[in-house]
Predict the structure.
Amino acid sequence: MLTPRHQALLMTLAGMTVGVAVFGTVVAVNGGNPFTAHDTPVGFVSPTPSGTPSRGDGLQADGLQYVVQNFGTDGDPVSAEVPAGWKSAQDGTRPKFLDSTGVWQLRFDTRGSKQSPDQQVASRERSIDQPGLTVISRDNGTLIYTYTDKSRGPRMGLSRWISLDNGKTSAVEITVGGRPQDEAGLRAILQHATETIKLPVADGDNRPN
């Protein structure tokens, strides 16, 4: 017959055995690697969150990676680097790329225009028919503005026109869109697209190349 002291000792040992068994089960389920549940490859920084960002989140420049995208036409091919993971919503001479949530977008217009960048800025400002339009700046061929979308709330747009003939005409338009709290990331995307866009070199073609 076991004494109360022996009974207590056996109960303690039994509890330790169950604890070891449970711990062993957890390790087996996780495969011994606590990071196997993450689908993101090592070294890759996802440019977008898994779901629609909350109101307080902002698109950060240092969280972006870029990939080359080709668009334009067969006789007039164009390429530029856009945020990784953003998908093309339309191609051709006016391609648009969207993130998986639809919150952010990047659009190009490679058709060119006889209007100068400053004229394009003024024309775009007049054409925006949205409530709460506020122009933040209109310098150096770049229009930065905010407005309120009826369904999506506060929005921010940055449109840039690039000239290669000392501002006489516009060669390419690049526009990015998002929310006001995304300004840092939107500015970075606009600048990166400006620096990486490539167009065919041809006689009389004054667009960036």
